[in-house]
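Here is a protein:
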Amino acid sequence: MRLIVTPATERQAESIGRNLRAADNLEVLTSSGGKEPAVVLRDSFRASKECYAIKIAHEGGMPCAIFGVADDPTVEGLGVIWMLCTKAIERCPIALVKVALGWIDHMARHYPLGLHNIADARNDLHIRWAKLSGFTEVGAVELNGHRFIHIYRESKHV
């Protein structure tokens, strides 16, 4: 299955936020302290240095995933990468990893210290995607009563 990546729009971010996979929806609700996922995605879109949407080729309509990167507010040279998906992405996990690798390298060019984020430990797809995309687990934190895995990927652009 072929995926198409295009620059995302705020409208796409909000739409995906209203149609998240159950595990992604739970992750957003938990990490944000219960904020509406469409609002969280809109805010993430606005905060991102780069933000892209993923569509499945030959399937019209809204994208099945959105991802981006923002400057880490506390560490210069470190980026915060993120991605959230609708259930449709589950039909093409291998294509997602293949597409993601190039885009992660593309976004990492701005961040000599690498990319990182936290992922809800209950979100198996996020954890698997991160590992297959070259991220390693570097610890865990508790957030709003749930365990989140801290993932990190060193930059190739040092």
Notes: The chain has one domain: 3-153.
